[in-house]
Known about the structure:
Residues 1-63 are annotated as: Disordered. The protein is α+β, with helices and mostly antiparallel strands.
Amino acid sequence: xxxxxxxxxxxxxxxxxxxxxxxxxxxxxxxxxxxxxxxxxxxxxxxxxxxxxxxxxxxxxxxxxxxxxxxxxxxxxxxxxxxxxxxxxxxxxxxxxxxxxxxxxxxxxxxxxxxxxxxxxxxxxxxxxxxxxxxxxxxxxxxxxxxxxxxxxxxxxxxxxxxxxxxxxxxxxxxxxxxxxxxxxxxxxxxxxxxxxxxxxxxxxxxxxxxxxxxxxxxxxxxxxxxxxxxxxxxxxxxxxxxxxxxxxxxxxxxxxxxxxxxxxxxxxxxxxxxxxxxxxxxxxxxxxxxxxxxxxxxxxxxxxxxxxxxxxxxxxxxxxxxxxxxxxxxxxxxxxxxxxxxxxxxxxxxxxxxxxxxxxxxxxxxxxxxxxxxxxxxxxxxxxxxxxxxxxxxxxxxxxxxxxxxxxxxxxxxxxxxxxxxxxxxxxxxxxxxxxxxxxxxxxxxxxxxxxxxxxxxxxxxxxxxxxxxxxxxxxxxxxxx
Length: 483
């Protein structure tokens, strides 16, 4: 873990006196200042509706249905949600535009400045997944002789993709299956099974993976975007249904879901992404990338009412889910007094082109921030030294998310833990080309006008060199004194 540095905390007045609404809690990362405005009341932690620029986000985008619990949940496991889901989430594809045509003229054209007005590289009339049609169009474009070298390169890429698709169908080995999503899923599951058979099956997942593969091959299981099925030790527990974290916790607790347990469909049909480049392995331990942002989030076992454990992550927008180490998982389980429930194994495509299988568990996550202490009148409280008093508060509610687990533990020179998409799903984030390399994280839309600087981009400095960050480590958030 990189060394830590004390951070300066200063209250910031509202620079916009015409705005009287709630001020954002603002967290700026770069080993620099951490600033915080007026806090929202705690009873606003749990939101059922969110607002953005005065517009209400539809509830259907937050949760499709209310969760079941108790006997009602287990009775409902035999209910298939496929008819209702396909009727609402799989409309007919929109009509495609007509094929583009370009006026005749002198050919070939190899200067982009001389192409006909409106010319582009796109083929909006073709299905992007129809490799044969795309290849045919590439050949037509080469004969058309407008920027032909571009389409010669594209033809090579498409031909390679077509060959990869043929290899995938061969690898899936499924007779009579034409659904590309099922074929992709079968390939992924068979690779996962091979890896599990070659390694120690610590979480007893082999029988479950085999049963899922057999169900796809026998066409007793199909692929539906947005629906999952629950499995335990080779037995299917449910029909396809929408995934809700509360239901997963209850089903997992009932079936001892810390081993042999699998939620099929929750990761998508193909490999997920953990695309952070593993360049830290080749750097000295005292070096950190000055353009990366490290931050502490608090994790805990779901439904265990403790403050959580702070873990340092790197903000990585190329990762589909949070990544921790097995040592972190075991510590969370020890602190929470129970084991984390499995979701299955996810196959991850990494930045170097390799694939790896990682266990995926569900954890609860939040972020704490320091806030100026206020009295009953809302005024800031001074400390005896003339500064301000601060309290540690949660910036968000506790959220249950997917988290993949790398083997081993994290050392200074190891690949950092990846934050994944949670932060941007939960809070506003922003940056500005002001040379400070700050990451602004806010729980209120007004923070953009109040805290993110307005910079003339024509005067923005160029990206500098990676420097030794030994003296500028990630900020430290003290562990909270309460739940």
